[in-house]
Design goal:
The protein is an alpha/beta fold. The protein has helices spanning 11-16, 23-34, 43-50, 57-61, 68-81, 89-101, 105-121, 132-140, 174-186, 202-206, 210-223, 235-242, 249-252, 256-263, 286-290, 295-303, 326-329, 331-346, 358-368, 379-385, and strands at residues 161-164, 191-192, 230-232, 253-254, 278-283, 308-310, 352-355, 375-377. The strands form two sheets. The protein has a four-stranded parallel beta sheet with strand order 2-1-3-4. It has a four-stranded parallel beta sheet with strand order 6-5-7-8, sandwiched between helices. Helix 2 (23-34) crosses helix 5 (68-81), helix 9 crosses helix 20 (379-385) and helix 18 packs across helix 19.
Length: 394
């Protein structure tokens, strides 16, 4: 399929204005790769295919329903099977550590402690700007948070829902997880946080390592077994969980706002929420718009809260540039798209920005540090901030 209707919706094509960085161009390159006409070690080929942000905006407008995301994952699998030579020892060690950390919370905990220590000591000042480690430390410091202390309210067998913790809990999402439990418990829901959970598999899946991704998915299928909904706070995690083909985990995975919409009455009782006026700019991540298709549900969830006014957001790019790890590996494009996104989000002078994706939030917070932009919160943290003293299920 090469009609090109997707080109105006592709953020990388809009940025580079190069056919190889469009969905149509990348499909042509994938064909050449699959047919053996293009070498997987080609630096130009890899630049175009690895430069895709995975926003899947092209899928949402494609009249032929081309599964671009799955095709890109397969193409990157081929690239991963044929790494360019010589491959640096540092890159191999970094991948091994990442793969191990996604499976073991203790190692992620050590990584989180090291990152927070680096922020406090300002160690990035001693690194050369532009180096991968410098970029990582500098770009994530505004979002680093202590690991959460989560308490079950009930055993998994008697829960109304299970909470998926993901792999960023030791780095960024601890406050989000704690806030989600505050909201759910405050509204009377019994929530379990099963042990043995691991990364959703998105990082491995989109980096061309499907076997590693499937191993993580199998671990989560076992840890999150049952019949009740599984609440994922990050839209990227939810999108990945929902596309697991085997078992029931994919069908049971929901966002926090979708869960509340389905289980609460249309008009919550006044004591459940404070009504202090607040203007909210709502950031709708790519995974929310193009994969889970829950943009309207998130919007409706905030609109129904007393005192909340949604600020106008117009002319934002289709992707903020975070793109998983693209905010670290493709800094020029990522920062350009992120700055344009922040301009759109702050144009109507909101009091707070709400984003349902942890990667987007990390990226936007880093760019907002010197701009005087408002606080950027997850839906869980925003909802927790609006809870009244006597919330109860309605």
């Amino acid at each position: 399929m090469h009609c090109g209707l997707c080109l105006p919706h592709c953020p990388t094509y809009a940025w580079h204005q190069v056919e190889g960085d469009s969905p149509r161009g990348r499909l042509t390159l994938m064909q050449g790769l699959a047919q053996g006409r293009l070498e997987p070690q080609s630096s130009r080929l890899r630049e175009h295919l690895e430069g895709c942000l995975g926003c899947r905006s092209c899928e949402s407008v494609c009249p032929a329903r081309v599964p671009f995301g799955a095709l890109m994952d397969r193409a990157r699998e081929v690239l991963a099977e044929h790494p360019p030579a010589p491959r640096s020892t540092t890159a191999g060690l970094r991948q091994t550590l990442q793969t191990t950390a996604l499976r073991h919370g203790a190692l992620r905990g050590l990584g989180g402690m090291a990152a927070r220590a680096a922020r406090k000591t300002g160690i990035q000042r001693w690194l050369r700007p532009g180096q991968p480690l410098w970029r990582t430390l500098d770009h994530t410091r505004a979002s680093l948070a202590p690991a959460p202390r989560l308490s079950d309210t009930v055993a998994p067998d008697h829960a109304d829902a299970l909470l998926f913790t993901g792999c960023m809990d030791r780095f960024f999402t601890g406050p989000d997880l704690e806030a989600a439990l505050t909201v759910l418990n405050g509204l009377g829901f019994r929530v379990a946080v099963p042990r043995g959970q691991v990364c959703c598999g998105a990082l491995d899946q989109h980096a061309g390592r499907p076997s590693a991704a499937h191993a993580l998915q199998d671990r989560n299928q076992e840890a999150l077994s049952g019949t009740v909904p599984v609440i994922a706070l990050d839209s990227g995690c939810e999108a990945t969980l929902r596309e697991i083909p085997e078992g029931s985990l994919g069908r049971r995975s929901v966002s926090l706002t979708r869960f509340l919409n389905e289980h609460l009455s249309a008009e919550p009782a006044a004591p459940a929420w404070i009504d202090t006026p607040v203007r909210v700019a709502l950031h709708l991540p790519c995974t929310l718009r193009n994969v889970t298709r829950e943009a309207q549900e998130l919007t409706a969830s905030l609109q129904r809260l007393p005192g909340v006014t949604l600020a106008a957001v117009a002319d934002a790019p289709n992707c903020c540039g975070a793109g998983g790890t693209a905010m670290l590996t493709l800094p020029e494009m990522a920062d350009g798209l992120g700055a344009a996104t922040l301009d759109a989000l702050t144009a109507d002078v909101p009091d707070v920005i709400v984003s349902a994706n942890v990667g987007c939030s990390v990226h936007l917070r880093a760019l907002a540090e010197d701009r005087g932009a408002p606080q950027i919160l997850s839906p869980a943290r925003f909802l927790a901030s609006r809870m009244g003293p006597s919330a109860s299920r309605t």
